[in-house]
Write a structure and sequence with these properties.
Layout (H helix, E strand, L loop, with lengths): L1 H12 L3 H4 L4 E2 H15 L7 H10 L4 E2 L3 E5 L2 E3 L8 E3 L5 E5 L4 H13 L2 H22 L5 H13 L13 H16 L3 H14 L11
Parallel strand pairs: 1-2
Antiparallel strand pairs: 3-6, 4-5
Helix pairs in contact: 1-6, 3-4, 3-5, 5-6, 6-7, 6-8, 8-9
């Protein structure tokens, strides 16, 4: 399992995604990429001109079909403006934010800060490996180490799952979360399982059906 982890991480850190994508990306991937970079460098998910310029540093065509939402008024947390730190914004002040769940880019932001866009790929690799490790742990309850490891690798490595390693979307992240949650449930830790599944549902609402065992 350790060798698999090293191989997955090394492969993702060696991947030049902008070159593979030929300078363009779109839709969910473009949105999550921009969100992760915005969280890593700006500490927010507000859509501004610098977010576009940042994407174009790597992807020449820039983000295509990005998901955004318009907001008026509301409240802002700003420690630089003094007590009470929370300030009401005028109703006519229009702002634009990314319109996707924070779950995946928030988890990826520290890795993006350290490794750039490869940090998103690294998170995908860690999530896939976590699912493999959990599958191995479950299979080990009834099988010897060799067959358990082989079965876990085939179950996840021999399917479509590895193709998602180079997708800047939360599919593998959700897979890892759900696998860990169900593993914790099997280990009679329902509260931790529920927290992880709740995070997975926030990432993608249809994941709520995977909470049925709980």
């Amino acid at each position: 399992l350790l060798a698999v982890l090293v191989a997955l991480c090394a492969a993702m850190l060696a991947t030049d995604l902008p070159r593979l994508a030929r300078g363009g990306f779109w839709s969910d991937g473009a949105t999550y990429h921009a969100m992760a970079w915005s969280l890593a460098e700006d500490g927010d998910v507000r859509y501004e001109a610098r977010d576009v310029f940042r994407s174009r540093r790597e992807f020449a065509q820039g983000p295509q079909g990005i998901f955004l939402k318009r907001v008026y008024g509301g409240w802002r947390l700003d420690f630089g403006m003094g007590w009470p730190f929370v300030h009401h914004l005028p109703g006519d002040e229009q702002r634009i934010y990314f319109a996707k769940s924070l779950a995946y880019p928030l988890a990826a932001a520290p890795l993006v800060k350290l490794f750039g866009t490869r940090g998103l790929l690294l998170l995908n690799a860690l999530a896939l490996w976590a699912a493999m490790a959990v599958a191995y742990a479950e299979l080990r309850r009834h099988s010897p180490p060799g067959p358990a490891l082989l079965c876990a690798l085939v179950l996840l490595g021999g399917t479509v799952a590895p193709l998602y390693l180079i997708w800047l979307t939360p599919e593998l992240f959700n897979l890892g979360l759900i696998a860990l949650a169900l593993h914790l449930w099997r280990r009679e830790k329902p509260l931790l399982a529920a927290l992880l599944l709740g995070y997975a549902v926030y990432s993608k609402p249809s994941n709520v059906f995977l909470a049925l065992p709980l």
